[in-house]
Amino acid sequence: MKLLVTATLISLATAFSPSANVRNGQASLAMLPKEKATGAYFPFESKTELSANKEVDDGSGGVRQLLGVRGAAQETDIWKIRLQLTKPVTWIPLVWGVMCGAACSGNYHWIWNPFDENDRNVMLGLEDAAKGLTSMILAGPFLTGYTQTINDWYDRDIDAINEPNRPIPSGAISEGDVIAQIWVLLLGGLALSYGLDVWCEHEFPINLALAIFGSFISYIYSAPPLKLKQNGWAGNYALGASYISLPWWCGQAVFGELNRPVFWILPVLYSIAGLGIAIVNDFKSIEGDRAMGLESLPVAFGVDGAKYICAGSLTITQLGIAAYLASIGETPYAIGLLALILPQVYFQATLLIPDPIQNDVKYQASSQPFFIFGLLATCICLGHHDFAA
């Protein structure tokens, strides 16, 4: 473990050393690797066409700035800029994943459970609530914040062309401050993960191991030479695993044990479904990706091929999980999961398949709620299942 930590920190130290060609925010664009424009999450309804250089005129620019999404207002407060770099809007799926992992453990205690008179130990409930909140802070502000900041760092020169109002290319935050933020979030996250292991009295520091692994995946996703985001299969699966498997395992490890193969296999399968979600973000950038030689799945298989890969990875994976739940005698949960899959198939047939480029945001907004509640239902089922029976 010490060797793994040391190797990770040495590699990151090398990567974050300021290079001669980017001092004072200047860089040679001719030497840059080609980047692709990724999809963005828009929590606001707006008829305003978003421009990379323009604040939206619907009054939401200040909130967008704090959430780290496009159309944000320009800001000079360094702490608001630091928050913007961590893109708080992207913390939400990780927090949800931790909740699902806690549910899967079957060992999370309420402060006062109105449905179970045996689960009303207030002090135990308060301790579990504190553990859950700490796990969410670890997965969201620290490690997702680290991931988003390092991604912006490695995209800084391309953002200087495509999104010059982003904090780094605009000069709103200095190179040294960005590097310091990356280190603080990374080391703080690793320390917090180890603190959770101590708190939970783990013999093996499983949360620290997960944090190191997740941080390494985040690094190779954004940084050359591997830069997984340039490859459709590897990049999209890395996203799916980071947003589903890792927080699930973290939450379950805090409140229970990862002591059965199913606790490893099902999160991996759900991450394959997450790959399908990630593909949706690649459709609108297909022309730019093709021009820059990037192997996104829509480029590699065409729009028609990629949309069926997207739909298939989501639907087939979830159907397989429903079949597994039925096979272990959890028929009501299997039926419930099928009921949540059907609306997803409907939106695939009516939005994704007809026109994935024009309907991408509408499809995601319509379909994803059913997916995430299906994920939670699966975890609740596993948490209540008696595997010893």
3D architecture notes:
The chain is 67% helix and 0% strand. It is built from 15 helices and no strands. α4 crosses α10 (232-255), α5 packs antiparallel against α10 and α8 runs antiparallel to α9 (206-222). It is globular, with a radius of gyration of 21 Å.
Per-chain topology:
Blueprint: H1 2-15, H2 61-67, H3 78-86, H4 91-105, H5 122-154, H6 156-162, H7 167-170, H8 175-199, H9 206-222, H10 232-255, H11 261-280, H12 286-292, H13 297-327, H14 331-352, H15 360-384
Which features would summarize this protein structure in a list?
mainly alpha, 67% helix, globular, disordered N terminus
Total beta-strand segments: 0
Q: Averaging pLDDT over every residue, what do you get?
A: 84
CA distance, first residue to last residue: 36 Å
Helicity level, as a percent range? 55-70%
Low-confidence stretches: 1-53
- % residues in beta strands: under 5%
Can you tell me the overall shape?
Answer: globular
What is the CA-atom radius of gyration, in angstroms? 21 Å
Structural class determined from secondary elements: mainly alpha
Summarize the biggest pleated sheet. Answer: none
Number of helices: 15
Quick description:
With 389 residues, the chain is mostly helical. The protein is 67% helix and 0% strand.
